[in-house]
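User: I would dearly like some help making sense of a protein record. This is the protein in question:
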Amino acid sequence: MDDKIKYEMEFPIQASPSLLYNYIATPSGLSEWYADNVNSRGEMFTFIWEGSEEKAKLISKKNGERVKFRWLSDEETPYFFELRIQVDDITKDVSIMVTDFAEEDEVEEGKMLWENMISDLKQVLGSV
């Protein structure tokens, strides 16, 4: 198996951190922008897109700040994806930080996918 490359992206977003956290940490919030439907049982989340299903485990979270998931297909690897809310101490500007991994030839595609999904999140939040 090839090693995946870690990449990080920052998206300025006009929303309160507490509201934003609900959209990144709850099944109902994630269903609004990340997947067609999201269900959870404890730490296990099921993400559903157009009939296909992927399961992920919530491996860590900090209330109001971040969530980190690992796809079950990557369970034996160090790979994860994390959504983190960052607030600038001086300007109070809010950003969502995305950390993800992809095969070398899929990094650009992964970044475009995140850009589209965060754009959807901004629309849901009215932060366009």
